[in-house]
Amino acid sequence: MADRDYRRRFEAWLLRWQGRLDMPEVDRVLPWIYAAFLFVALALLSLARYRSLDTGTDLAAWVQGSWLIGEGGDLETTITGDHLFAPQAAVLFWPLAQIARLVPTATTLLVVQSAALAVAVVPLYRLARRWAKLRVGAASVLVLAYSLYPALQELNLADFHPETLAVPLFIAAFLAIRDERWWRFGLLVGLAVLARADLALAVAGMGVLLFTEGRRRIGLATVLVSLGWFLFAVLVIEPRLAAEGVAHVEFFGDYGDTPLGVLGGIITNPIQFLTDVFTRTNFEYLVGLFAPLLFLPLVAPRYFLPMVPLQMLYLASTAMDESPPAELSVPAVAFLMVAATFALARTGQIRVELVNVDRRVLSALAVTAIVFFARDAPSTPYEEPWDWGSRDAQDQARRAAIEMIPDDAGVQATPRALVGVAERAVVYELDTSESVIQAERGLRRTEYVLFDEGDAEGWSRVWFDNFDRNLQHDGYRQEYRAEGVTLYRRVG
Known about the structure:
Layout: H1 2-21, H2 24-51, H3 57-71, E1 76-77, E2 82-83, H4 93-100, H5 105-119, H6 121-130, H7 136-148, H8 150-157, H9 166-179, H10 182-195, H11 200-212, H12 216-241, H13 259-268, H14 270-277, H15 280-290, H16 308-317, H17 330-347, E3 349-351, E4 354-356, H18 359-376, H19 393-403, E5 411-413, H20 415-418, E6 427-429, H21 436-442, E7 448-452, H22 461-473, E8 476-482, E9 485-490
Parallel strand pairs: 5-6, 5-7
Antiparallel strand pairs: 1-2, 3-4, 7-9, 8-9
Helix pairs in contact: 2-5, 2-6, 3-4, 4-5, 6-7, 6-9, 7-17, 7-18, 9-10, 9-17, 10-12, 11-12, 14-16
């Protein structure tokens, strides 16, 4: 009897607080508070990783690209060996590079990326409250699931990718659809495709969704314009910029060697295409996208179906033993979170204009989000992220070597040190992934070589000695050496 009275009093207290929070004034402020907390967490994690020099080639390439834009010169990046905008016509990076000219470049790019992922909370929350009719508690659990989503955490820590900026744009575009703000919708999806050209295929899927919902004119216009931009980018822009034809076509080599050839190969070989999409690695990747959300998106599939064709292309292009890179999860993060929002609404019952979701469902979603965050997220507590910002002796040695290199000197560096020397005209990555022979063949005759033994996994002591001896034979001398970090300067 006492337990029943306690439960009744607790439910009454909970209902009173929900009634106080289910107010328009709260809805205007609360999502921004959530976004602010998430931004601080994401930014601190990303900057701590950068401070520890644990970044890679992708961030270095965009840092060099930003520097080249600031200098007003050729946008051929020596790190990638291609034009900055050749891979996916990410012209949205241009205005961002103008901002990065005024402040530290790498820090700016990482902070902007974290801010974009965090601000997506605002349209997601408003979508949940305004159109899914969820109560504050359910909307807040949804925000928690988004914040801990392993794919989002991986996006935040996987260097920098302009397409990450499309996550809040897509979620806000769904909100604009519900609000019937068509000019806003057009602006949002337009910016999204400028962050990465092939995201236009997901926008075309949104157009199909609009068409099936009875908004035929705006749906047809969305399909035609988005497909038109995609074809223009793939058939006109990228071939003119790329050094070796359209970027990424080589990942579809089994289907064709041109964009149209790839399309024809997929159509004529659907079984092979589906086999490549649903490899074991890709299957585990898909489970990792749906499971942290309790598979709720499957309850409202119409909201994630628009991105399925694009996601299948991504998976077919990465049919290998490794999971797809983090940036290929951008459409999935946005569309699956929208689908989960309306799925939650379908699991509940409407009471006084709002949907009451069973607290057991919300508890299960919260616990699942926490469990998968702890298991799969790169920022899991098991990785001890609170120690990322500290610099050990090897980090300090890298910094010391970087500071010894003149700003106008050509450099070749191993990946961990690459971002520290990226703001210059000539900088190359020293590939140490396989053997000393590969590294020597990839070595370019730059003024400086920055070699970090931590990037040479699998090398034996003999390989290190041979590498040092061969460099000195080619006219390089050691300028600095400490903690496995060696800086060579060419004197001959």
